[in-house]
Amino acid sequence: MTNTLLAAALLALVPPASAQTALPPSLSVPGIQPQVIDLSLVEALVAVKRTELAGIFGFVPEAVSSLAFADYLMRQPKALKLFVKKVEKDKKVARGISVWDRQVLLHLVSIDASGGALGVKKIEKKMMDRISVLSLSEELLLETIVQRRDGR
Asked: Could you tell me which of 15, 48, 67, 98 has the fewest CB atoms within 10 Å of its CB?
């Protein structure tokens, strides 16, 4: 419940797309503006206790946010463990995982299979087995997972 409240508070800090203002000219990069981040990403950042990264992920296009987060997890073993724990809990409670979480897991499998081509260490076998099993889970909408967590 604390994580849900923290995620809600974090979302309150992210203005809707219509309310976002342009960066000052000195910081502006043509074609790049902060954007609203995916709610699943917000939950993931809360789970790995790195909510301060929400601002950075605001500059990552939504289409590649799962890949960017997977890359982050490959470089932060403690965050990886916390994320996997969160997804396992979702699977147990909701009988499925979010589409975005599944994308992250599949990216982790792919990055790990590349054998450190991106300058990261391979994930230990036991953890990779957990990730692989989770990546085969049924996909659910985040809204469905939240409702099931709340017992609705």
From this structure: 15
Please check whether residue 28 lies inside any domain of the structure.
Answer: no
Provide the residue-wise pLDDT of the chain in tens; the chain has 152 residues: 455 444 444 444 444 444 444 444 544 555 666 677 889 999 999 999 999 999 899 889 888 999 999 999 999 999 999 999 999 999 999 999 999 999 999 999 999 988 766 678 889 999 999 999 999 999 999 999 999 888 87
Q: Is 60 helix (H, G, I), strand (E, B) or coil?
A: coil
**Domain total for the chain?**
1
Please give the Cα distance from 7 to 1 (Å, whole number): 10
Containing domain of residue 95, as a range? 2-14+33-149
Q: How far is CA 12 from the centre of its chain?
A: 18
